[in-house]
Amino acid sequence: MFPLHRDREQPIFSARAHVFQIDPATKRNWLPASKHAVTVSFFYDASRTVYRIISVGGTKAIINSTITPNMTFTKTSQKFGQWADSRANTVYGLGFSTEQQLHQFAEQFKEVKEAARLAREKSQERFELSNPALNIAAPEELSEERHSPPLLTVNGPGEEKLFRSKSAEVELTVEKEKVKKMLSEGSMCEINLEAELFTLQDSNAKLVAALQEASSSVEQWKQQLDEYQEETDRLRDQVAELEGQLGHPAAGQSAREELSQSLEELEALLSAKDQEIHNLQSKKTDVGELEKEREETIQRLEDLERLNSDLEGRVQSTEKTLASSREEQNQAEVEVQRIIEVLDVKICDLNDLRQSLAKLIDK
Predict the structure, then answer these.
(1) Beta bridge partners of 11
(2) How many of the other CB atoms lie within 10 Å of CB of 281?
(3) pTM of the model
(4) What 3-state DSSP class applies to 323?
(5) Which 3 state secondary structure label does DSSP give 247?
(6) 54 with 38: CB under 8 angstroms?
(7) DSSP state of 136
(8) Which segments of the chain have a pLDDT < 70?
(9) In angstroms, rounded to a whole number, what is the distance separating the alpha carbons of residues 33 and 92?
(10) How far apart (Å, rounded) are the C-alpha atoms in residues 214 and 281?
């Protein structure tokens, strides 16, 4: 049906805009009807004297709205406008790239709306003139009652029937109330949409800044990881040197203290890096390359942590060995002191024996 109507209709104005429809469930949020800006056109059907707004996305009609004199196009922001279609039971919204495009569309809407009103009046006049059952009032009577609904008399076979246009007026009044209600709801939705848009823009700016900061930090992480690797190698050399100095308790104690201090500094640096990575992770979006580099960095940090844990275990083992060597040395010193004491006693005995022998020789 839609393509047949397009064959006999002619476009009179076109513009490109993003198309939205009000959410039928909540009547508060906008639902995008097109992923990108599409062409929105005013069409005129000369055979039916009807004006319509039509927009097609692919093979689907996104907008198919017949313009009536009671419709109103409302500008809700500098680049956004909307109108309610009671026949389609929805509210359409258009987002333009410039304020000028919105102004041109709004002016065209007013012109087409006025043309639709004139076309309806002419159609009603032709209907009244072509209907033989209508009793047309005299010009004097028509001029006196120009501002009141016309009274139409139809002579039936057995009784007279009176028809007034009050039903049409009631229908128009109900339609106007619906339009006002939908426009009010649409305005609230637009305010909420603009607030959400500003929030998203702010979040997007913060996210871009966080991503830039994360990108600049990647090289720093790599450099710091190289420094950690060098520090680990140095600690390994210190452990080897410490193992070679087990026979010298004073030097081993100094090396152990230096090693413990270096390990504490390295753990503090690793903790700071983990916190920095955690903070960046909370800000960062799903970016494949940065996420991969972050995972590699975390893996290398975990490897360093395992290596440091191994070094700590070796340091503890070295400390135990040093303590055991110190205890053995103390025991050896005690044994030597005991032997010295025994030797002193033996020397005293020898001296006594020597003196006794000397006395015997003198006698």
Answers:
(1) 43
(2) 13
(3) 0.38
(4) helix
(5) coil
(6) no
(7) P
(8) 1-8, 127-171, 179-203, 245-253, 255, 281-288, 363
(9) 9
(10) 9
